[in-house]
Amino acid sequence: MLDDFSFGSLWKARINKKYPQKNLYLPVLEGYSYINDGHPFYRWEQIWIHFRDAYLGSKKTDWLSLYGNKENFSLPSTPIYFENLINGIIIKKIEKEKGFGSVLQLLTCGKFNPEDQENYFKTLEKVSGITKLNFNEKVDELIRIEIKNNQ
């Protein structure tokens, strides 16, 4: 059992104990785990390499159209989802600029529902200034920052 211990598993257990599952936005929960502990099979640096290899061949991508589709950019047996990674880099920005309280607001904006993401985007705008209209531009900007930091 102790071999399976990680920050990610402790983080998820504690946050699920404090906040009802129906209030947690899973891609933010996973994104926070990705940047702090990685994925059960990959560290953040490996996740970033998978993402870079899968998506960054094209200069412009419509990130908003990909968001919420549970797009896997890893092996089928160990999926890593696009929206989790994007939330990870968004969380880095929010935490740096406004602290963990703002990350917590985004995390508790409601259950992840790909068909209805209005609460997510309302909260995202409130805590980061990122809207549906500027989502692609802001995600491109955050990706450029992450590329620079991972060279």
What does this structure look like?
The longest helix is centred in the middle third of the chain and has 17 residues, at 82-98. The chain has helices at residues 7-18, 26-37, 44-55, 63-66, 82-98, 100-107, 118-128, 135-149. It is globular. The protein is 60% helix and 0% strand. The mean pLDDT is 88. The chain contains 8 helices and no strands. Helix 1 packs antiparallel against helix 2, helix 5 packs across helix 8 and helix 6 packs antiparallel against helix 7. It is mostly helical.
How would a textbook summarize the main sheet? none
State the end-to-end CA separation.
36 Å
Instruction: Provide the β-strand percentage band.
Output: under 5%
Radius of gyration using CA atoms only: 15 Å
Number of helices: 8
Please count the beta strands (DSSP E, at least 2 residues each). 0
| Fraction in helix | 55-70%
SS content category: mainly alpha
Shape: globular
Order of helices and strands: HHHHHHHH
Chart the SSEs and their pairings.
Layout (H helix, E strand, L loop, with lengths): L6 H12 L7 H12 L6 H12 L7 H4 L15 H17 L1 H8 L10 H11 L6 H15 L2
Summary keywords:
151 residues, mainly alpha, 60% helix, globular
Write a concise synopsis of the structure shown.
The chain has 151 residues and is mainly α.
